[in-house]
C-alpha cells in the first residue's frame, strides 16, 4: 500500500468519524432545553435535525471510501464480522438513524397538522374579537356623536373651500395634493350636492362599519393564506426530507450489516456453508 493511499484512507476514516461525532453532539445540544411534550419544540427540533441529516450520510461515505482504498491496496487487515470493526458501528449508527428519521416522518406531519389547526383557530378568534369590539364601538353613543361632529366639521371645510375660488384653484394646481383628492374637489365643484353623499359614505356609522369589516376580513384571509402556505411548505420540505433520509440510512445500514455477516443470511453465514 503506497504512503499516499494509506494517508488518504486514514484521513477519510478520521474525517468520517469526526463528522459522525460532531453530528451526535449537535443533535444533543439542539435538544437543550428538552421539552418533549411541547409541540413547537418538537417541530423546531425535527426541522433542525432533518436539515443536518445529510452530514452523517457524507461521513459514512468517507469511512467506507477509506476502507475501500485500504482494501484495494491490500492494507485492510480488519476482521469482517467483528464488533470491534469501525464499519460495524458506522452501519449500526446508520440503521438507528434510519429508524429515527422514519419515526419523525409521521410525528412531524401530525405536529404540522395540529399547529396549522391551532394557528387558524387563533386567527379566527382574533378576527371575531375585532368584529365584536367594532360592534361595541358602533353601539357607543359617544362614538356616534364623534362621527357626527367630524362629518359636520369636514362638510364645513369643504363648503368654505368651494366658496373660495382662489383657494380651490390653488388646491387643484398644488402638486402635493394627491390626484384622487383633486378629482373629488373637481367633482364637488361641478356638483356640490355630492358632498353629502361622499360624507355619508365616509363619515357615517354604516360607512365606518363596512370599511372596518372589510379590513378585518381581508386581514384574516391574508393571515390564513400565509399560514396555510407556511405549514404546507414545512410539511413537505421537512417531512419528505425525513422520509428520504430514513430510506438512505436504512438501506446503507441493513444492507451493510447483512453483507458483512452481522445479520442472519449475510456473507459470513454463506461462507460457512
Automatic annotation (TrEMBL):
> Any stretches that span the bilayer, and where are they?
6-28, 49-69, 89-107
This chain's protein is named: Uncharacterized protein
| Superkingdom to which the source organism belongs | Bacteria
Organism of this sequence: Oxynema aestuarii AP17
UniProt keywords, alphabetically: Membrane, Transmembrane, Transmembrane helix
Q: Which NCBIfam families match?
A: HpsJ_fam
Print the organism lineage.
Bacteria, Bacillati, Cyanobacteriota, Cyanophyceae, Oscillatoriophycideae
